Amino acid sequence: QVQLVESGGGSVQDGGSLRLSCASSTYRRLAWFRQAPGKEREGVASIGSDGTTEYSYSVKGRFTIYRDNPKNTLYLQMNSLKPEDTSMYYCAAGRNPWIGVSLLPSDYDVWGQGTQVTVSS
């Protein structure tokens, strides 16, 4: 069973920055999702094997997803964090070769355990 392991979460002040990391095997499509208590899982950012990216409207311009293929590591650089970004963040990987990038949870087959991000005002 391939595992994804997230790290880098923590607590920051409003306007602060964090970088999340996800140790992963080589997958075509990788993404970050988040889920707050009582809310549905939300796609944050996705990256395809060719480097194409997609972001949710709420984080576009503040978050950057990128991958280091030789290290099999996915990153999410989060800048200008807001209290509404507080959530559990999950790394996800998808095998379907016909999908480039996606923010739909159903397009992903493997999930990490999550890392908590808390932004205080």
What does this structure look like?
With 121 residues, the chain is an all-beta fold. The protein has no helices and 11 strands. The protein has strands at residues 5-7, 10-13, 18-23, 29-35, 42-47, 53-55, 63-68, 73-78, 87-94, 110-111, 115-120. The strands form 2 sheets. Strands 2, 4, 5, 6, 9, 10 and 11 form a 7-stranded mixed beta sheet that branches. A 4-stranded antiparallel beta sheet has the order 1-3-8-7, with no helix packed on it. The model has no long low-confidence stretch (mean pLDDT 94).
What is this structure's SSE topology?
Elements: E1 5-7, E2 10-13, E3 18-23, E4 29-35, E5 42-47, E6 53-55, E7 63-68, E8 73-78, E9 87-94, E10 110-111, E11 115-120
Parallel strand pairs: 2-11
Antiparallel strand pairs: 1-3, 3-8, 4-5, 4-9, 5-6, 7-8, 9-10, 9-11
Helical run tally:
0
Helix share of residues? under 10%
Largest sheet: 7 strands, mixed
- What proportion strand? over 45%
What is the number of beta strands? 11
Span between termini: 40 Å
Global geometry: globular
Overall mean pLDDT stands at: 94
The helix/strand class is: mainly beta
Output the helix-strand order: EEEEEEEEEEE
Low-confidence stretches: none
Please give the radius of gyration in angstroms. 13 Å
